[in-house]
Amino acid sequence: MHIPSWLLTFCEYLEQMASLVVLVPLGLAFWRWPHLPPPLRLLTGSLLFTELVLLASGLVELYRPGWSYAVWHVFTLVQTLLFCRIYYLTLVSPVVRRLLRLAALGFTVFAFCDSLYLEGFQQVNAYTHVAQSALLIGLALLYFEQLLNELHIIRLEQDPLFLVSTAIVLYFSGTVLLYVFVNKLSATTDHASHQMIYTLNAMVNLIQYMLFALAFWYADQLLPSPARS
Amino acid sequence: MNNWLLPVMLATPVLLLLALGIVGFVLRYQRRLLRQQEQLRQVRDASQQQALEAALLAQEEERRRIAADLHDGVGTTLAIAKLHLSALGQPNLTEEATALLDQAIGEVRRISRNLLPAALQKFGLPFALDALARTVPADGPTHVTIEQRGQPRRLDPKRELIVFRVVQELLGNGLRHAHAETIEVSVDFGPDYLSLQYRDNGVGFDPAAGDLPPAPGARSGLGLTNLRSRVAVLQGTLRHDSAPGAGSKVWISFPIPYLPVDQKPALTTSI
């Protein structure tokens, strides 16, 4: 399939824009830092960590080509654990919180197995990514269920954690297939295919960052709940 | 181009749409649940209001029955007994008994009038309030004034009775417990509201102690519970301010539709 050159150029610009847009939620997070509840402070930490990993993977790629995948393996694990902590602080049910601890432990063990034995450090940890998507989408759905049971928030679209959960559901459902086939897709030397993968990722990233920015904007509207203290 | 890319590019938007659908469903479902919750709350409020109104109606009906029994039964019997005494033709022997009977007849009339204020039914709230103020002796330890502001007019009989009972209760509580030198009640007939202000310079009470059992001889302010019930029936608001030794103030306001000037309320009330 032939992809027109203008579309490829557009995709490149879109990708660059998506990597810059992260500055919007980060800027808002620092601006509203005194009002941020613990889950949103953790989210800020997660965004900062993402940027640091981007920088680190660039440096590793420069001096030890081929080892940048290892950095991303660590990133997947730490990012998942950070989001698990966010939901641990947000979800109220003791049973769910106990299960969440077990799930985080199980995920860590699986991620290590995947990186060390199943797929190794020399390629993208696709299995871990799929497990991450399933875990985080599940947690977001559990938060939606909690919202519907509690009904203490009148305007859901202004609830920061609803926006964060929406971002997570959209990002991970939009990229899960990409990660299922990522190693098969990246085996090709076709530049256009690579560009399409990056563009797809950049588009959902853009949506995610905009929703995170909105979450920080509405940060002071977060209602206190027993689990959020 | 890689063979795997096309299915991924096609399936990803579908997954995204599904995810958006879930978010949309949560938003819509939450709105619907909130609406249902609000409707339930309204129904609950309405039924509470009805129950409160029914309880007050029953109370007023009971008062009316007791007033009628006192007036027609006990009052008549006492009057007949007095007639019999005077028929004996020995005023020297019956003078003291006749005086006691007169006192009892007067007492029965007073209780009967308090239970069923005839002046309220016949002449309306403004007149009944004046009459209420006159029942307190001017040379007593407490000086009572009931001031009426605005344009005093007739209300729906049910509302008139509730407002009258509120003033009666405020005054009764003040006279019984406040040990005040002055009690001032002002009734303001506004354009679409009626507000009451009560003020005394008596012993006051601790508003925070309302939930605790009162100490012997202490004023607990529990009369406010009855007042609140009556005010709630007319969907009014009640505020009070008091402290031990600092007197008491109560502000009450009702949203009230007045009767047109040419329309007279029915003499027999529904309560």
Automatic annotation (TrEMBL), chain A:
Keywords: Membrane, Transmembrane, Transmembrane helix. It comes from the Bacteria. The chain crosses the membrane at residues 6-30, 42-63, 69-88, 100-118, 130-148, 160-182, 202-219. This is Uncharacterized protein. It comes from Hymenobacter elongatus.
From TrEMBL, chain B:
GO terms for molecular function: 4 iron, 4 sulfur cluster binding; ATP binding; metal ion binding; phosphorelay sensor kinase activity; protein dimerization activity. Its cofactor is [4Fe-4S] cluster. SUPFAM superfamilies: ATPase domain of HSP90 chaperone/DNA topoisomerase II/histidine kinase. Residues 165-258 form the Histidine kinase domain. Signal peptide: none annotated. It is found in: Cytoplasm. One of its GO terms (cellular component) is membrane. The chain crosses the membrane at residues 6-27. It catalyses: ATP + protein L-histidine = ADP + protein N-phospho-L-histidine. Its EC number is 2.7.13.3. Keywords: 4Fe-4S, ATP-binding, Cytoplasm, Iron, Iron-sulfur, Kinase, Membrane, Metal-binding, Nucleotide-binding, Phosphoprotein, Transferase, Transmembrane, Transmembrane helix, Two-component regulatory system. Member of the two-component regulatory system NreB/NreC involved in the control of dissimilatory nitrate/nitrite reduction in response to oxygen. NreB functions as a direct oxygen sensor histidine kinase which is autophosphorylated, in the absence of oxygen, probably at the conserved histidine residue, and transfers its phosphate group probably to a conserved aspartate residue of NreC. NreB/NreC activates the expression of the nitrate (narGHJI) and nitrite (nir) reductase operons, as well as the putative nitrate transporter gene narT. This is Oxygen sensor histidine kinase NreB.
